[in-house]
């Protein structure tokens, strides 16, 4: 089983403590920074964008984990100035050209991640297994922080791990996003998840960010 990585959700950071929070992430060895990009069309909300990514890269060397909740991402990857080693998730539901979108991430030097909404079947991965480094399973419907876990997604994590392993792809990671609380993280880990988006349910659930990270690591190891 792959060791767990944490990806705190930057849409949940208290802006009054922004720089201080980044220093805490660095000191705690946080592996990725999750950046939710929403276009008001694919999901009914607007969040972070290209300028935010550019400025964030100036403030820290932790690689970004871009979660693109935008339509037709295949034409927009170039807008983000993807850096080597950054993860970039594109939603299977947001494009008729999934392979093209994933290939665009790879040619920009990023790790291509295929994101799936809770109701999207795993079979959409059938012909893109050579194009991805990870699968992002949404455990809530995307668009807003602070939602409740959809219970069926726990079974989906286990199904996804089995699906990948049966195809000899033990190397492909499973990232989970949505209500990754301390309690849910342990269940998600047992089901086979190894990358955890940490939002209002865990890392930002109280003022002791370093303590929250440490606690989430214990739950997710
Ligand atoms: C949207 C976001 C949210 C959120 C995750 O994709 O990534 O899911 O910040 O954290 P929770 O659900 O704990 O607020
Ligand atoms: Zn996200």
Give a brief description:
The protein has 221 residues and is of the alpha/beta class. The chain has helices spanning 18-27, 50-59, 98-107, 152-166, 182-191, 209-220; strands at residues 5-8, 33-38, 64-69, 87-91, 111-116, 134-138, 173-177, 195-198.
Can you tell me about this structure?
This protein has helices at 18-27, 50-59, 98-107, 152-166, 182-191, 209-220, and strands spanning 5-8, 33-38, 64-69, 87-91, 111-116, 134-138, 173-177, 195-198. It is of the alpha/beta class and 221 residues long. It has a single domain, classed as Aldolase class I (TIM Barrel), CATH 3.20.20.70. An 8-stranded parallel β-sheet has the order 1-8-7-6-5-4-3-2. α4 (152-166) packs parallel to α5 and α5 (182-191) packs parallel to α6. The chain is globular, with a radius of gyration of 16 Å. The relative contact order is 0.17. It binds D-xylitol-5-phosphate and zinc ion. The site of zinc ion has 5 residues, from β2. D-xylitol-5-phosphate (DX5) binds next to β2.
Q: Count the E strands.
A: 8
Write the CATH architecture name: Alpha-Beta Barrel
- The number of distinct helices, counting runs of at least 4 residues, comes to 6
Q: At the first level of CATH, what is the class?
A: Alpha Beta
SSE sequence, one letter per element: EHEHEEHEEHEHEH
Number of domains: 1
From the 3D structure, determine the CATH topology: TIM Barrel
Low-confidence stretches: none
With strands numbered from the N-terminus, the spatial order across the biggest sheet is: 1-8-7-6-5-4-3-2
**Residue-averaged pLDDT:** 98
Ligand inventory: D-xylitol-5-phosphate, zinc ion
